[in-house]
Write a structure and sequence with these properties.
The protein has 342 residues and is of the alpha/beta class. The protein contains eleven helices and twelve strands. The chain has an eight-stranded mixed β-sheet with strand order 6-7-8-3-9-10-12-11, with helices on both faces. Strands 2-1-4-5 form a four-stranded antiparallel β-sheet. Strand 9 and strand 10 form a beta hairpin. The chain is globular and about 70 Å long. It starts with a strand and ends in a 7-residue tail after the last helix. The C terminus is likely disordered.
C-alpha cells in the first residue's frame, strides 16, 4: 500500500493566562507535542489513550479544524504531494472534499432545524458540487449505502435514534466521496449492540468506497476489531505504534502494558491482573523532563527522568518510545500465549 497521509512533528500548543503589559501568554498547554507518523491508503489506523492525551486535538489538527502550531501534514493524492499546512482558506476548503470527520456525539453534530435530506446534502451545496435532482439522487444513494430508509429523509434528526443519527452523520461525511476520514469516538455514545452495527458499517463502506480511517477511541475491543495498526498516545506524544495483533499480544511500552492489562477477560474463570498506574497524570502545561511517563512508570530510572526516548523500531513495523523496551520484549515473549486478543 502507498502512503496517503504523512504527519511530521505536529505540535498544537494553546496559550494560557496573560502576563506583562502586552498580555503575553503565561504559558502553553502542549496538547500535541511533536507527533510524527504515516497512514497508508486503505488502512484503518487506531489512536488510543486516556482522556486528555491529545487524541481529538491531533485528529482535528490533521484536518486543520484546529490550526497546528508547527509541523507539516502532507496528503498524497493522484501522484500529487500536497502540503496541507500551507494551504490558504480557499485551497483548504477544496481539500476538505477529500478529508472529512465523523464526530463523537450524533445528537449535537446535526442541525435540528434541517431535514435529514438537507443535512446530508449540505456539503454538496456548500462546495457547489451538485444541486436540484442530481443532489437528491446522490443523497438517496449514500443514505441507502449507510442503511437509512430513503422514505424518512424528510424527517428531522430528533425523530431518529442514536444509531440512526450516527448513520446520518456518516452519510454526510461521505457524500463528497472523500478518501480520508477521522472517526472521533464515532461509536462511544452508542449502545453496545448499536456500536457493533456501526463498526460493521464502517468496515463495509471502507471496502466499497476505498476509504482510509483514523479511528480515535477509548474502547480497546472496538479498536482491535476494526484497526490494522494502532498508535498509543500519552500526554501529547506517541509512545508506541504497531500492528494491532502485535500491540495487543506483546505491548512493549509500560503505558500500553497498563492499557492492555485493563481489558476484561472473556473467560470469567480467569482472574484479571491489571497493572495499576500510580499517581496522577502530569499537566500538559508542565510536562515532566525526560520520558513523560516516568512519574507513573514502574520501570523508570534516572535515565528516564533526564533523556527523552525516541520512537525507535524494535520489530517489524513496531515502534516504541521507551529506554527499557527490551524488558517488556522479554516479558511479552514469555506471556504471549497467556494474553487473549479481544
Amino acid at each position: 500500500m502507498s502512503v496517503l497521509l504523512e504527519i511530521s512533528d505536529i505540535k498544537v500548543h494553546f496559550p494560557v493566562g496573560k502576563t506583562g503589559f502586552f498580555g503575553r501568554p503565561a504559558g502553553y498547554v502542549r496538547a500535541v507535542d511533536g507527533v510524527s507518523f504515516t497512514i497508508e491508503a486503505g488502512e484503518t489506523l487506531g489512536l488510543v489513550g486516556e482522556s486528555g492525551s491529545g487524541k481529538t486535538t491531533l485528529g482535528r489538527a490533521i484536518l486543520r479544524a484546529i490550526e497546528p502550531t508547527s509541523g507539516t501534514i502532507r496528503f498524497h493524492k493522484d501522484g500529487q504531494d500536497i502540503d496541507v499546512t500551507s494551504l490558504n482558506n480557499k485551497q483548504l476548503r477544496a481539500m476538505w472534499r477529500d478529508m472529512q470527520m465523523i464526530f463523537q456525539d450524533p445528537y449535537s453534530s446535526l442541525n435540528p432545524r434541517m431535514t435529514v435530506r438537507d443535512v446530508i446534502g449540505e456539503p454538496l451545496l456548500a462546495n457547489k458540487v451538485a444541486k436540484g435532482e442530481e443532489l437528491k439522487q446522490r443523497v438517496k444513494q449514500i443514505a441507502t449505502q449507510c442503511g437509512l430508509d430513503v422514505e424518512h429523509l424528510s424527517r428531522y434528526p430528533h425523530a431518529f435514534s442514536g444509531g440512526q443519527r450516527q448513520r446520518i452523520a456518516i452519510a454526510r461525511a461521505l457524500i463528497l466521496h472523500p478518501e480520508f476520514i477521522v472517526c472521533d469516538e464515532a461509536v462511544s455514545a452508542l449502545d453496545v449492540s448499536i456500536q457493533a452495527q456501526i463498526l460493521n458499517l464502517l468496515k463495509e463502506l471502507q471496502i466499497d468506497l476505498s476509504l482510509t480511517f483514523l479511528f480515535i477511541a477509548h474502547d480497546l475491543a472496538a479498536v482491535a476489531y476494526v484497526c490494522d495498526r494502532v498508535e498509543v498516545m500519552y500526554l501529547g506524544t506517541i509512545v508506541e505504534i504497531a500492528p494491532t495483533e502485535g500491540l495487543y499480544y506483546t505491548p512493549r511500552h509500560p503505558y500500553t502494558e497498563a492499557l492492555m492489562s485493563a481489558i476484561p477477560e472473556a473467560d470469567p474463570t480467569k482472574e484479571m491482573t491489571p497493572y495499576l498506574l500510580t499517581g496522577e497524570r502530569p499537566s500538559p502545561a508542565n510536562p515532566p523532563d525526560g520520558c513523560r511517563f516516568n512519574t507513573r512508570c514502574r520501570y523508570a530510572t534516572d535515565l528516564c527522568r533526564t533523556d527523552v526516548p525516541l520512537l525507535t523500531p524494535i520489530a517489524s513495523n513496531h515502534f516504541v518510545a521507551c529506554h527499557h523496551a527490551e524488558i517488556l520484549s522479554l516479558q511479552g515473549a514469555m506471556d504471549h500465549e497467556e494474553v487473549a486478543l479481544i
